[in-house]
Amino acid sequence: MMIIAHISDTHLDGSERALARARRVMRYLRGCAIDLILVSGDLADHGEISEYEQVKAELVADVPVLMLPGNHDKRSAYRSVLLGTDGDAPINQLHRVGGVLFALCDSTIPGRDDGALAPETLEWLRGVLAEADAPVVVGLHHHPIRLHNPLVDGIGLGNADEFAAILQRAQGVVAVLCGHAHAAAAGSFAGRPLLAAPGVVSTTRLPWTTTDALTWANTADLTDPPGVMFHVLDDDGTLTTHVRTAPE
Ligand SMILES: [Fe+2]
Ligand SMILES: [Fe+2]
Fold it and tell me: Which residue numbers delimit the Calcineurin-like phosphoesterase domain (predicted)?
């Protein structure tokens, strides 16, 4: 059994507010008996070097902290500070933690808020899944299914059909984990559990919870406490997810 703590969208930008919320979540997680932490993108708000230095300093724990990029991240600065590499190629990473493989895909399109898996990322994922010798958790920033929130659905993963085709042919994929929506949400994708982590920095309001006409200016609820998902992955591949908010 493995416990994956899943957080997302810290949007660290040097502000006290974003920093306080990230620290609140990390303080909570450091007190939990978990096997790893996955941060599913939008680590930084503007993709600045100084923001990644904050990511590197704050998103740390005694267990592995895996991260992947979102639409607010910039590949070159991300690579430079967090990976010690150059260039702006998609940041696709394979990690092995406690007998589980984490295939983390870069779903960003530089300069845009919606997402897609680039041809080289699809090829990389195909190869990883073909050679996998352990259960695989696939992570990416953009949600590949409709979440029924019109604003968020307008900037989802564009080529979800190509992504689904790869997963459907693969053995061993136990879950698909994403962020971006700033909303704890559960669904299924390509026959696998699909979980979107809550946003650390804010929560998106849902159309049916308010009579306001939601716009990008008012969709973020800044008062909701930052949330965490705990995915319990059993040895038989069953995934059970719990959601909590980080206490002050
Ligand atoms: Fe975000
Ligand atoms: Fe995002």
Answer: 3-183
Residue 239: predicted pLDDT: 97
Q: Which neighbouring-strand residues pair with 7?
A: 39
DSSP 8-state code for residue 188: E
Instruction: Kindly state the helix (H) or strand (E) to which residue 227 belongs, with its residue range.
Output: strand 227-233
Residues sharing a CB contact under 8 Å with residue 31, sequence separation 6 or more, in sequence order: none
Distance 106 CA to ligand 1 centre (A): 14
Helix/strand number for the chain, H first, E second: 6, 13
Nearest ligand for residue 199 CA:
1
Residue-wise pLDDT for 168-179, tens only, equals: 999 899 999 999
CATH number of the domain that 142 lies in?
Answer: 3.60.21.10
Cα(198) to centroid(ligand 2), Å: 12
Structural domains counted in the chain: 1
pLDDT digits (tens, 9 = 90+) for 83-106: 999 999 999 999 999 999 999 999
Could you report the average pLDDT of every consecutive run of 10 residues in the chain (248 residues)? 98 98 98 98 98 98 98 98 97 97 98 98 98 98 96 97 97 97 97 98 94 92 95 96 97
Ligand 2: distance of its center to the CA of 3 in Å? 24
Tell me which ligand sits closest to the C-alpha of residue 45. 1
172-186 residues labelled b (16+ CB within 10 A) or e (exposed): ebbbbbbbbbbbbbe
Domain span at residue 122? 2-245
